[in-house]
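Morning, I've got a small favour to ask if you have a moment. The fold is given in discrete form, as structure tokens running alongside the sequence. I'd be grateful if you could look everything over and explain what you see. No rush at all, and the record is pasted right below.
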Amino acid sequence: RLVISDDGRGIDPQAIRKNLSEKFPHRDFSDQTDEQIIQNVCLPGFSSKKNVGEFSGRGVGLDALREEVLRSGGSIFLKSVQNQGTSITIEIPMPGLELAVRRSA
């Protein structure tokens, strides 16, 4: 388990909702809780940037991370509180660890 956190301004779920409805007009996000809405920042193509730069605004970073974590059989979860910060928890199974634990027990 890897937890990365900051003590910044956090993620505003209302801003994410608005951005999602603009970028993905064919999808309905209205029934998602604020916690679920925040997870959508990992969607392919999602970016909170208005302008695309050389290295940011393309909606690739968190999507690429999410894809690699899922490909490894793991999970990723974002938690954010406005004006308190955000944490990303990544869990990746360690192949062979369970077997090693059983042998030593």
The CA atoms of residues 16 and 37 lie 7 Å apart.
